[in-house]
Amino acid sequence: MARAEDFLGEVLSSFDLLAPVVGAVRFGQGHINDTFVVHTQPEDRCCRRFILQRMSPAAFKRPDQLMENIIGVTDYLGREIGRHGGDRSREALEVIRPRSGAPYYTDSQGGAWRVYPFVEGTVCYQSAETPELFAASGRAFGRFQRLLQGYPAATLHETIPRFHDTEDRLSKLKAAVAEDKLGRVKECREEIDFMLSREADCSVALQALREGKLPLRVTHNDTKLNNVLMDEKTGEGVCIIDLDTVMPGLAINDFGDSIRFGANHCAEDERDLSKVSLDVDLFRVYTQAFLEGAEGSLTAQEVAYLPWGAKLMTLECGMRFLTDHLVGDEYFHISREGQNLDRCRTQCKLVKDMEDRWAELEAIVAQYGAHT
Ligand code: ADP
Ligand code: GN1
Ligand code: MG
């Protein structure tokens, strides 16, 4: 795929941003899309900013379906937020269409691009700097799920098939190990064995879904802390972003992915594993806040399975990083050799910590679940 930078002129001229564009630079720390912040300069006002993204062709095979989902979900959220007296322009993303009126722009080499207004007055955090901040993200993701409770799930396309199908993720890892196309298996034997020895775990949530113990809901599916924009003054969650994977899914996975990323004090690619550990206090803080935001919309079974959401999202993400390392870093952006293996190792360490402290995690969800 050609460098995104090479298309900026062509792409920007296809959108009417109501004022001359004065700059566009790479922005943020997402692993998937190519994201730029675009500055425009109206004559009579200060500069305005927009987010311009090339959707990842490795991740998203059908940008048309993806954008249909996003437009449907953002319109719905906008109406719900308005009904609850919120500020639609800050609290829900809004798709800005290209001049053609299509939902996104397709460049001369088939790359798919979209534009959103930049949500001003917000901060995007890469780690939970304070427990209050982490709690605010939990309330925001819990609320997001509640607001989408009435969304017609059957109209959503599956933008990444089997996205949180942990059994399938393990099969893909096994296939990558069998092929070993870059000869990297020998350096990751320990991590591979770690995953393989947890094969039975991979079925726990899926089995509960098959048995009707856990319901399918409209979920976000990528609830990292850096996918919620926080108010720069109050520290409250303002806007949930990165809606590419909003699809029918499990509430416990939305909870779990936030824990995976946020309930610790290390970077996802930390190489010094002595710095990597699960912070059970942060787990507690997030559990309380997520359930508060969800306002009683979760069933007792869902609450009981929340620790499984945390463990499975961490295990699965570790497998995905490992698989990508073995096949040559085709999916997750890397900025150095071995980064996906480092990311896998932090996930293994966090899974281990969750296993070691399982009884505490269960006690926490039982405590807060009893009040919902
Ligand atoms: P990726 O799928 O690659 O993670 P995201 O949609 O999460 O892409 O965007 C990457 C980053 O860009 C976010 O983490 C955030 O910092 C920033 N960002 C995205 N959309 C907006 C927005 N509308 N306003 C402000 N910042 C945004
Ligand atoms: C990706 O898009 P981003 O950077 O918010 C990935 C998630 C992973 C995460 C790991 C569409 O999230 O599933 O958990 O990286 N998103 C997609 O950091 O694959
Ligand atoms: Mg993101």
Brief characterization of the structure:
The chain has 372 residues and is of the alpha+beta class. It is built from 13 helices and 10 strands.
Please give a structural write-up.
The structure is a single chain. The chain is of the alpha+beta class and 372 residues long. It is built from 13 helices and ten strands. It has helices at 8-12, 63-83, 88-91, 131-147, 166-179, 189-196, 204-210, 251-262, 280-294, 300-304, 306-327, 339-356, 358-369, and strands at 21-26, 34-40, 48-54, 105-106, 112-117, 122-123, 217-219, 228-231, 237-240, 247-249. The strands form three sheets. Strands 1-2-3-5-4 form a five-stranded antiparallel β-sheet. The termini are far apart.
What is the structural class?
alpha+beta
In what range is the share of β-strand residues?
5-15%
**Strand order of the main beta sheet, please?**
1-2-3-5-4
Question: Could you tell me the number of beta strands?
Answer: 10
| Low-confidence region ranges | none
Element layout with pairings:
Blueprint: H1 8-12, E1 21-26, E2 34-40, E3 48-54, H2 63-83, H3 88-91, E4 105-106, E5 112-117, E6 122-123, H4 131-147, H5 166-179, H6 189-196, H7 204-210, E7 217-219, E8 228-231, E9 237-240, E10 247-249, H8 251-262, H9 280-294, H10 300-304, H11 306-327, H12 339-356, H13 358-369
Antiparallel strand pairs: 1-2, 2-3, 3-5, 4-5, 6-8, 7-10, 8-9
Helix pairs in contact: 4-8, 4-9, 5-11, 8-9, 8-11, 9-13, 11-12
The protein binds adenosine-5'-diphosphate (ADP), 2-acetamido-2-deoxy-1-O-phosphono-alpha-D-glucopyranose and magnesium ion.
Residues 30-32, 59, 222, 224, 227, 242, 244-245, 257, 268, 317 line the site of 2-acetamido-2-deoxy-1-O-phosphono-alpha-D-glucopyranose.
